[in-house]
Amino acid sequence: MTEQATGAHHPQPRPRSGGQHSAPEHVTGAQSLIRSLEEVGADTVFGIPGGCILPAYDPLMDSTRVRHVLVRHEQGAGHAAEGYALATGKVGVCMATSGPGATNLVTPIADAHMDSVPLVAITGQVASKAIGTDAFQEADIVGITMPITKHNWLVTNADDIPRVIAQAFHVASTGRPGPVLVDIAKDALQAKTTFSWPPVMDLPGYRPVTKPHAKQIREAAKLITAARRPVLYVGGGVLKAGATAELKVLAELTGAPVTTTLMALGAFPDSHPQHVGMPGMHGAVTAVTALQKADLIVALGARFDDRVTGKLDSFAPHAKIVHADIDPAEIGKNRAADVPIVGDAREVIADLIQAVQKEHSEGHTGDYTAWWKDLDRWRETYPLGYDQPEGGSLSPQAVIERIGQLAPEGTIFTAGVGQHQMWAAHFIQYDKPATWLNSGGAGTMGYAVPAAMGAKAGAPDRTVWAIDGDGCFQMTNQELATCALNNIPIKVAIINNGALGMVRQWQTLFYNQRYSNTVLHSGPDDVNPEARGTRVPDFVKLSEAMGCYAIRCEDPADLDKVIEEANSINDRPVVVDFIVHEDAMVWPMVAAGTSNDEIMAARDVRPDFGDNEDD
User: Fold this and answer.
1) Is the C or the N end of the chain the one with fewer CB within 10 Å?
2) Of residues 320, 186, 300, the one with CA closest to residue 246
C-alpha cells in the first residue's frame, strides 16, 4: 500500500489482503527489513552500500517490489528521496552505512526537517556489542540527528524491525510530515527472526490533532468577513495537506488576496487574479506590502519565518492574526495569534469555507473594494521585471523565463539556492501543486540535481528541469552519472555567472564591491590569469564525461533553439551551460534585519505607496 503525504489523510500500514495477518516467515533481520519496506509501499530506495548495512543489500537484490538506485554520494541519496517524496506524495527512502555514510545524510535530513518532507533514512550501525567503543566506522547517528528528525530509533533486536519500520513510515507521513531515522545494528540484520505483517504499532503520546476546534473556526470566519484589508498567507502546509482545491474555493468565496510563500508556490495558481505574488526578502512588492498594510492575516500552514516577516517587531503592525497549523509549536512562536487553530490544513480550510458561507447567509460579507484598488495599483506600478544586460550577453532571468514558457505541460522544476532560485520562483508560472521543489528553510546548495533525480524516478512520465547555479552544481553534479546509468533523464540548466551569485550581490550592495572568495572561475588574486575565460571546470565536457548530452548557450539569439533541443532529448540526461551576465541582481529585496517597509523594488528604487491608505 501507499502512504500519501497529505497531512491527516494517511492510511496506516495494513495487511496485504483481507485484513488478515500474514503467516510468520523465518528470515534474517535483513530479509525482515526488505519485506517490511515492501509492505509499507516503498518502491524506490536511494542509497550506497557499506560494511554495516551490507547484510540488507543481499535480500534487496531479490526484491521485485523495491528498486534501489545506487547514488554517488549519500547527500545525493537524501535529496533524491526528498524530491521523490515531494513529486509523488509518498514517503522518500534513503539508505546508508554507518559512520561517514550516515553523517553524509545529515544535510538532507536537516533539509527535510526544515521543509516538512516525509523521509525515512535507514542506516547500518556497528554490531550492538561494539556500540560506544569507537569501533571502525562508528558514529552516534541517533544522537547526531535527534534535533533534526521527528523521531529516530536504534534497533538492536531483529524482532523489532517490522514494528519500527511501520512506525517510522507512520510518523514520517502523518501530522506535520518530516524525516525519521532508523539505525540498525549489524548483528540485528544478521540474526534469525520471524516476519509477519502487520505489526502492532506502539507510539504512546503520538496523536497529531487534525480536526480543528469549531469555536476557533467560527471566530476566524467572523474576522474574515469583518476585515477591510485581509490577506490569505499560504505556506507549504497547504501543499502537504493536499488542500489546494479547498484553498481555491475559500479564496474565491472570500475574495481576499492570496500570497504564497516560496514553499507554497503552486498551492494557488500564479495566474489567478487574486494571487498577489510571493512574500519575503525577495518577494513581490505587492505581496510584501499587502501583508504590511493588512488588518487581518489568515496564515494557513505557514510559520512566520524571518525571511517573510523581515524585522519581526515591525511586521504587519495593524493586523490581527488567524494562524492555522498542524504543529501547535508553530502557533505563537514568532507572532502571537488572535485566533489560534490547530489542525490539518485541509480540514481547517474545509471548515472555514462552511463557516464563511454561514456568515454570508447572515448578511456578513467583507467589502474589499478599496483594498483591491490599492493592491491593483501596486501590482501595476511595481510588477516583477528585469533589465536586459548591455553588450548582448544572456540575461539569467530571460533564460529561466523561457525555460518555463517552453516546458511541456506538467513539468516539475527543482532549484538550487541563491539568485537562480529566486528568479525561478519569480519568472516561472506555477499553477499546479508539486511542480516546484526547492530547499526553503535550510537553503541547501546542491539540492537541485539530486532532487530532480528523485522527482524523475518517482514521476518518470513528467519532464523534470533542475534550475541550478554554477556554485550549487559543483556540489552534487556527480549524481548526473547516477541519472545516466539508471535511465533517469532529467534536464539541468546551469545559470553560469562564474560566481556565487547571491553572495556576490550582497558584496555589491553591502561590502563596497569587495568580492572576497565569490569568483568561481579564477584563483586568489587571479594568480593564474590564463584560467579566466578557459572555464574551469568546463561543464559541457564534465557532463559529457558523466553520460549526459551537453550544450552551451551564450547568445540570446540561440536561447529558444537550445531550450527546444534540450526538451526534445528524452533518452538521457541533458545539461545546458547558460553563460549569463555576472552582475544581474535579484529584485525586489528587503535587506536582512530591516523592516519590510524598507523594501526596494530595484536598486535605489524605493516604492512610493502614498499616504492615502488607512493605517
Assistant:
1) C
2) 300
CA 285, CA 516: separation in Å to the nearest integer? Answer: 30
> Tens digit of pLDDT for each residue in 45-54?
999 999 999 9
d(CA 445, CA 550): 22
Task: Give the model confidence (pLDDT) of 260-311 as tens digits.
Answer: 999 999 999 999 999 999 999 999 999 999 999 999 999 999 999 999 999 9
What pLDDT is stored for residue 534 in this prediction?
A: 58
Upstream peptide bond of 460 is cis (omega within 30 degrees of 0): no
Q: What is the 3-state secondary structure (H, E, C) of 405-473?
A: HHCCCCCEEEECCCHHHHHHHHHCCCCCCCCEECCCCCCCCCCHHHHHHHHHHHCCCCCEEEEEEHHHH
What is the distance between the alpha carbons of residues 301 and 287, in angstroms, rounded to a whole number? 17
CA distance 601 to 304: 22
Question: What are the start-end ranges of the E strands in 166-309?
Answer: 179-185, 192-195, 230-234, 258-260, 275-277, 296-300
pLDDT of amino acid 9 = 40
Give the helix/strand (H/E) hosting 94.
strand 92-96
Quickly state the pLDDT bin for 25 (edges 50, 70, 90).
Answer: confident
Burial letters for 542-570: b for 16+ Cβ neighbours within 10 Å, e otherwise? Answer: bbeebebbbbbbbebeebeebbeebbeee
pTM: 0.94
What is the DSSP pairing of strand 192-195 with strand 25-28?
antiparallel
For residue 412, pLDDT over 70 is answered with yes
Give catalytic residue positions.
Answer: 74, 136-137, 186, 502
* C-alpha closest to that of 261 among 292, 230, 282: 282
